[in-house]
């Protein structure tokens, strides 16, 4: 017995040999005591750089969180460009943008017996620039591709079908599902097409709508959609009027302002949101005027995605090149005086802005929240698909007790 | 530690977030690899991403080294999970393990504070993790070894600083074996001269193995007592088993050499027991001399032990794999121990910059790692900037919709203004050329303008203008001109904006012409735009004057009947003068120049003779002028 005990103790010592007594070494070499108190954040730099209002000045966030709120990280080995939840099921769809022939894919991750697992992968001919869940069964995804094609990924069949395309040399920059049967695609050189998802027939087309370059598209209603691009304009298109000209144009009043992403509040479609190349999240009320009703710059660098949380009024997600994912609570901000209906115009303060990711990765390229819960998925240049929970933002106070 | 949440889905697609204790996590590794094909690649990539965060952090050298070790350890654990590893996998694991071993050895010898306990404990732990020989020997003895084996194992454990383990073995043997052999009389007799009791006493008398105990002389006093005991027992180290142990504890080189079984063990033993001054270099030198009884297992270890870090960095480098050399060189450089070493054949680049830039270049293969490459290269001075500039210029950026374009622009801002401009110009020129190929003159004008290529921007704008001129205000060309004018207005290049301002005015002219037949205000706007375009500051090339005059004349009242009907005059006297003046400039030209000036008019109305058109326009303008004068009177 004594011999056995001695050998066991020695092996135990060997296993823990790198650590001081009472300490464990966590990811990135953080030293966390066994009592649970973080002793010394070895520090990979602050989670975010200075966060400033574009107007008024002053730091938006005074306390940079030091705890990691990421709950699950899946490593794909490829740069991931976009992610969307399939609402009817329990799947997250991601698209890559590696750019090498045969290297890109659309993947579906689904919860299984062993946790989140890769359900299916379709090799994608080109970078995936945009994914949009279809209307109706909410179980298929439209993909906009660098090869100029808009394709439909059918989750039920685990197969990809071609829907339509743009002229040679023009990439499909964005896609918006308008109804169960129709989708609008936006080409990188400004072409616009409204197409039948099943037949691929274009019901309306326009060449060169915004020749400088479209970056994103978003549905407003079953007849309207919006495009945004590096010209700094948001073009609103009404399919009933044809695509000869935008029904309305919204402008961002800064020279050489590129709008990189766009989304709209499904309940109040007159509110349109864009992320810019200068870290700003901009909101327009298209009933009022062509200029934004609010603009805030919490990100350091490009904002790659904005998503209005349709299941949570007044809440919005954004992510950017600074590696951070932020949740915005406009409803809470509106309680300081703006009318309840006008919450999107409320002025944000640090209290209403929470971090879901701490900037420890490279750029976060896309983010999405599940329609039925508080689960957030985001993808990064570090080849990771990360899952976290909105409730995690409550843990953002410093960890020290 | 706090509970961790996990995501799960309840039947029917509803979401559940469950909490589980940290002890129940799957594997304790932050990245769970889902694609088995990518497992090795992912583990290595993950290590590189995390190392980059450490590299760019503001940690101290010792903290960085420790953090690098942690991420390499994660990689080793991930690689070791392969159930049926191929030869390639095993080779990969060997490389990573080797890097971990050498980095740890460096940390112990160079990066930690010698006056603290870190170096000693790090060396002991390093040996535990990377040399399992002594533990195998212990296990062999525990599985039924004899007395000779017992003494060998105890001496070996003591030699490599694991005196607690040696003491435990001795005490266990006293309890389980020697008590029966020696009889009851010997039991509990601490003053016994039986070798095992002497060994126990010597081990228990050892002061705590701390730097403080070494500095205040306690450790040396204890070592001298061990040697005195050895001499009092009238045995020489190595002559018997107890003598060997006392010789080890007293730091006698011959005893250390007899106790250890590898270069690593002997070096550590020498480092722990050698009785030279406090200078780490002297201690390393003495330890290397002692360890020379064995062949070093790795040249890098020998170089480090021999106070030659550059040699170790060079030895560690493998073709295409500079991760370890780069980070090691960076650590040595930050610690101020590598300044003098240059690579003569490489533009006198420092050894550190050479390996860091080579590593950065090796990262270039994946798009997502360009950010990593950038940060490494930017730490390598001018040459690093050159390489980064080259990498960014070569980035695949074919479409304006590709986020890679913005990412390259963002990275270029980290370069010097001159190089940043070079990158932006290159990328913008490529995008402009792509637009030009597919006939998107607005896009081409925008990107050439951002590239500060005025000549090609103007050429594209001219092409756009020509298209609008030929097609007229209702044509697709006019629409394209609108977009081109807008492109110029948003590109924030004042020089080119000023140079091409006539495009904006021409676009406005065409917009007014659309409604000029119906609205007199639109006709006035058109005339005003035309007058501005043809004026001294208009900037519109003369080759386009003919069509402007022709278009404006086309909205004039066709006959005196119209005036009789009381319709307002669309073009005023001054504007009419401007148009007539432009017309006379065209009429006065001769030869080839005249042909070139009338070419636009010829294309606009191919059915008519340009000379005849000029006459018609002149007539209309003169009549309008007359109306204007009459109207004034």
Would you summarize the structure shown here?
Chain A is mainly beta and 401 residues long. Chain A contains two helices and 31 strands.
Structure description:
Chain A contains two helices and 31 strands. The radius of gyration of chain A is 23 Å and the shape is globular. In chain A, the strands form eight sheets. Chain A has a four-stranded antiparallel β-sheet with strand order 4-31-30-29, with no helix packed on it. Chain A starts with a helix and ends in a 12-residue tail after the last strand. Chain A is mainly beta. Chain A has one domain (7-14, 25-389): YVTN repeat-like/Quinoprotein amine dehydrogenase (Methylamine Dehydrogenase, Chain H), CATH 2.130.10.10. In chain A, β5 and β6 (91-96) form a beta hairpin. The model of chain A is unreliable at 1-70 and 394-401 (pLDDT under 50). Chain B has four domains: 1-34, no CATH class; 35-116 and 310-394, no CATH class; 134-179 and 188-261 and 263-296, no CATH class; 527-633, no CATH class. Helix content of chain B is 67%, strand content 3%. Chain B has 33 helices and five strands. Chain B has helices spanning 39-55, 61-79, 87-111, 118-130, 133-142, 147-159, 163-182, 195-205, 211-215, 218-232, 241-249, 253-259, 263-273, 280-291, 299-305, 309-316, 323-334, 351-363, 370-378, 381-394, 403-412, 417-437, 441-450, 454-471, 476-490, 494-499, 501-515, 520-534, 545-553, 560-564, 573-588, 591-604, 610-632, and strands at residues 4-9, 15-20, 32-33, 342-343, 349-350. In chain B, a hairpin with a 5-residue loop joins β1 (4-9) and β2. The longest helix of chain B has 25 residues, at 87-111. Chain B is rod-shaped. Residues 1-39 and 184-190 of chain B have low confidence and may be disordered. Chains A and B meet through α1, β4, β8, β13 and β31 of A and β1, β3, α1, α2 and α4 of B.
């Amino acid at each position: 017995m004594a011999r056995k005990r001695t050998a066991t103790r020695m092996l135990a010592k060997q296993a823990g040999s790198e650590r001081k007594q009472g300490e464990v070494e966590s990811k990135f070499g953080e030293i966390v005591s066994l009592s649970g108190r973080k002793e010394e954040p070895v520090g990979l730099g602050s989670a975010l750089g200075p966060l400033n209002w574009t107007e008024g000045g002053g730091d938006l966030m005074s306390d940079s969180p030091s705890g990691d709120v990421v709950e699950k990280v899946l490593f794909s080995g490829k740069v991931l460009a976009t992610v969307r939840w399939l609402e009817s099921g329990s799947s997250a769809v991601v698209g890559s943008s590696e750019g090498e022939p045969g290297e890109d894919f659309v993947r579906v991750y689904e919860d299984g017996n062993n946790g989140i697992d890769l359900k299916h992968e379709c090799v994608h001919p080109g970078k995936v620039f945009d994914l949009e869940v279809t209307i109706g069964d909410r179980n298929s995804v439209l993909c906009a591709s660098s090869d100029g094609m808009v394709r439909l990924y059918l989750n039920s069949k685990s197969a990809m079908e071609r829907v339509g395309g743009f002229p040679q040399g023009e990439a499909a920059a964005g896609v918006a599902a308008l109804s169960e049967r129709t989708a609008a695609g936006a080409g990188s050189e400004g072409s616009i097409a409204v197409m039948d998802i099943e037949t691929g027939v274009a019901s309306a087309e326009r060449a060169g709508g915004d020749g400088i370059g479209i970056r994103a598209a978003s549905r407003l209603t079953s007849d309207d959609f919006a495009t945004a691009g590096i010209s700094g304009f948001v073009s609103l298109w009404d399919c009933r009027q044809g695509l000869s000209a935008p029904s309305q144009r919204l402008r961002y009043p800064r020279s050489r302002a590129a709008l990189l992403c766009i989304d709209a509040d499904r309940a109040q479609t007159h509110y349109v949101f864009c992320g810019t190349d200068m870290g700003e999240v901009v909101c327009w009320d298209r009933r009022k005027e062509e200029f934004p009703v609010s603009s805030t710059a919490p990100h350091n660098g490009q904002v790659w995605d904005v998503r209005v949380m349709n299941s949570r009024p007044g809440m919005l997600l954004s992510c950017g090149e600074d590696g951070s994912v932020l949740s915005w609570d406009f409803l809470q901000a509106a309680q300081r005086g703006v009318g309840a209906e006008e919450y999107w115009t409320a002025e944000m303060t640090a209290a209403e802005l929470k971090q879901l990711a701490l900037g420890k990765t490279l750029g976060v390229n896309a983010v999405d929240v599940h329609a039925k819960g508080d689960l957030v998925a985001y993808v990064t240049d570090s080849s990771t698909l990360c899952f976290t929970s909105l409730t995690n933002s409550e843990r953002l106070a410093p960890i020290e007790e | 530690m706090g509970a961790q949440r996990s995501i799960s889905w309840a039947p029917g697609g509803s979401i559940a977030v469950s909490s589980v204790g940290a002890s129940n996590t799957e594997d304790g590794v932050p990245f769970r690899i889902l694609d088995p094909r990518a497992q090795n690649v992912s583990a290595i990539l993950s290590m590189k991403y995390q190392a980059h965060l450490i590299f760019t952090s503001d940690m101290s050298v010792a903290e960085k080294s420790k953090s690098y070790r942690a991420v390499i350890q994660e990689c080793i654990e991930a690689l070791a999970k392969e159930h049926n590893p191929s030869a390639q996998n095993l080779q990969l694991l060997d490389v990573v393990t080797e890097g971990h071993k050498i980095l740890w050895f460096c940390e112990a010898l160079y990066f930690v504070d010698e006056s603290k306990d870190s170096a000693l404990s790090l060396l002991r732990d390093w040996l535990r993790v990377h040399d399992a020989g002594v533990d195998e020997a212990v296990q062999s003895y525990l599985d039924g070894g004899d007395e000779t084996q017992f003494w060998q194992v105890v001496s070996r454990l003591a030699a490599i600083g694991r005196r607690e383990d040696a003491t435990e073995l001795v005490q266990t043997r006293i309890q389980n074996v020697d008590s029966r052999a020696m009889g009851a009389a010997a039991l509990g007799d601490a003053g016994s001269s039986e070798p095992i009791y002497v060994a126990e006493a010597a081990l228990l008398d050892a002061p705590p193995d701390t730097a403080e105990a070494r500095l205040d002389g306690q450790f040396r006093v204890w070592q001298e007592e061990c040697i005195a005991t050895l001499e009092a027992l009238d045995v020489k180290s190595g002559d018997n088993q107890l003598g060997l142990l006392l010789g080890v504890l007293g730091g006698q080189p011959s005893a250390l050499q007899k106790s250890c079984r590898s270069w690593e063990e002997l070096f550590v033993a020498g480092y722990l027991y050698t009785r030279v001054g406090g200078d780490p270099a002297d201690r390393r030198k003495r330890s290397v001399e002692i360890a020379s009884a064995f062949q070093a297992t790795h040249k890098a270890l020998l170089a480090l032990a021999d106070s030659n870090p550059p040699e170790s960095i060079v030895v560690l480098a493998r073709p295409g794999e500079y991760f370890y050399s780069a980070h090691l060189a960076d650590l040595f450089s930050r610690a101020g121990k590598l300044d003098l070493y240059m690579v003569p054949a490489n533009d006198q680049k420092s050894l550190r910059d050479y390996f860091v830039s080579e590593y950065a270049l090796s990262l270039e293969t994946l798009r997502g790692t360009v950010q990593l490459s950038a940060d490494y290269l930017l730490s390598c001075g001018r040459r690093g900037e050159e390489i980064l500039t080259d990498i960014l210029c070569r980035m695949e950026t074919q479409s304006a919709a590709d986020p890679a374009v913005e990412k390259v622009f963002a990275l270029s801002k980290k370069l010097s203004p001159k190089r940043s401009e070079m990158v932006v110009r290159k990328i913008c020129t490529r995008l402009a050329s792509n637009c030009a190929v597919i006939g998107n003159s607005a896009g081409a004008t925008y990107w050439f303008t951002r590239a500060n290529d005025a000549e090609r921007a103007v050429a594209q704008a001219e092409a756009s203008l020509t298209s609008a001129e030929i097609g007229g205000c209702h044509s697709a060309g006019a629409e394209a001109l609108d977009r081109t004018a807008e492109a110029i207005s948003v590109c924030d290049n004042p020089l080119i904006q000023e140079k091409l301002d006539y495009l904006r005015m021409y676009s406005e002219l065409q917009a007014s012409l659309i409604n000029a037949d119906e609205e007199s205000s639109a006709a006035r706007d058109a005339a005003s735009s035309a007058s501005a375009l043809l004026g001294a500051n208009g900037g519109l090339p003369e080759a386009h004057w003919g069509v402007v005059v022709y278009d404006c004349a086309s909205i004039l009242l066709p006959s005196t009947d119209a005036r009789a009907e009381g319709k307002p005059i669309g073009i005023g006297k001054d504007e009419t003068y401007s148009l007539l003046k432009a017309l006379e400039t065209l009429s006065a030209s001769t030869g080839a120049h005249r042909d070139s000036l009338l070419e636009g008019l010829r294309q606009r109305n191919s059915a008519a003779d340009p000379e005849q058109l000029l006459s018609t326009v002149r007539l209309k303008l003169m009549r309008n002028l007359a109306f204007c004068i009459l109207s004034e009177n």
